[in-house]
Amino acid sequence: MTQLDITQAKADISKVLDLAIKGEEIVITQDNKPVAKISPIAPILRPLKRGSAKGKVQMSDDFDEPLEDFKEYME
């Protein structure tokens, strides 16, 4: 966690935001007392919908055929 004085945070706001984008939490202080915290926002996960991968997954015709490497174990 990074700690910055409010004056320094104002002067370097783009650097402060870059740190937050990279996952860093930044505490802003005034007179050595914490007054604010800037933290990254977790990405929003969209709910999966049934059939959303339709047409994206393909299986070969011999998918369920025995593998040559395991033939001796199948006998």
Description:
With 75 residues, this protein is of the alpha+beta class. It is built from 3 helices and 3 strands; from the N terminus they run βααββα. The chain has a 3-stranded mixed β-sheet with strand order 1-2-3. It starts with a strand and ends with a helix. The mean pLDDT is 89.
Structure characteristics:
single chain, 75 residues, alpha+beta, three-stranded mixed sheet, elongated
Summarize, please.
The protein has 75 residues and is α+β, with helices and mostly antiparallel strands. The protein contains 3 helices and 3 strands. The mean pLDDT is 89.
List the helices and strands and how they pair.
Elements: E1 2-5, H1 6-11, H2 13-21, E2 26-30, E3 33-38, H3 71-74
Parallel strand pairs: 1-2
Antiparallel strand pairs: 2-3
Count the helices. How many? 3
State the shape: elongated
User: What is the residue-mean pLDDT, rounded to a whole number?
Assistant: 89
Side by side, the strands of the main sheet go 1-2-3
Q: Indicate the structural class.
A: alpha+beta
Beta-strand percent range: 15-25%
The radius of gyration computed from the alpha-carbon positions, rounded to a whole number of angstroms, is: 27 Å
Give the SSE order as H and E letters: EHHEEH
Residue share in helix: 25-40%
Count of strand segments: 3
Give the low-confidence spans.
none
Q: Biggest β-sheet: count, sense, barrel?
A: 3 strands, mixed
